[in-house]
Amino acid sequence: MYLATEVYLVRHGETMFNQLNKVQGWCDSPLTVKGIDDLKRTADALAQVHFDNMYSSDLKRAIDTVHLMKNANIVSKIGKIKKLPEFREVFFGSFEGDDINETWKQVALAAGIGPVDDVQKIINQIGIYKFREATKEADPRHLAENKQELDERMVRAIDVLHDLTKNEKRVLLVSHGDFIKTLAIKYWEKSDGLHDVPFPDNGSVTRGILHDDGKFEIVDYNVNAENL
């Protein structure tokens, strides 16, 4: 018998690539001192929240983050952390590790709007889904995830999590900013499913409910430690 499962989605802490303004999807870089300090505040805020289990993306910045959450929690008995590649960050293909502003210029040119280097301005002009298509088109190897590929992975991620948590009432899962944002566009009650939502902060918590029939909904989005 399946139970409804409360899911605390935590975005990993700030990384070196975040700090250096580099594209970071499936590529990885270590957490910064600031990133660790911010995560400690989140971990302290969740220290007395009981979790039946904790999970993370299989990228190291997420794994390091989940262990900070696990080590600070004083009311949960968590065993080995299961790593879920389905919850990796959005994949940016050939742009991985490149300067982020130069990357967005190329995406904007592929979208036909000129060399704009501000990602939010691009999304505001063409929408989040055309932005995904333009990113794939601009990628010289066309490896970057487009809307369909990302949507299929999100659905698969929820299905995997549903199977894993069938006897768990509350779990914590560390994922990534763009992936959590895209989940919110699809599953948040305050999103119409078409337009962009704010990017979640490093160390923030997004809370969802995974129902016994496999349906997922986000009920709180991008909550920082002081508001937990």
From TrEMBL:
PROSITE patterns: PG_MUTASE
InterPro entries (alphabetical): His_Pase_superF_clade-1 (IPR013078), His_PPase_superfam (IPR029033), PG/BPGM_mutase_AS (IPR001345), Phosphoglycerate_Mutase (IPR051695)
Protein name per its UniProtKB record: Phosphoglycerate mutase family protein
Keyword Kinase: no
Record has Translocase as a keyword: no
Species of provenance: Lactobacillus intestinalis DSM 6629
Domain of life assignment: Bacteria
One protein family per Pfam: His_Phos_1
UniProt keyword list: Hydrolase
Annotated coiled-coil segments of the chain: none
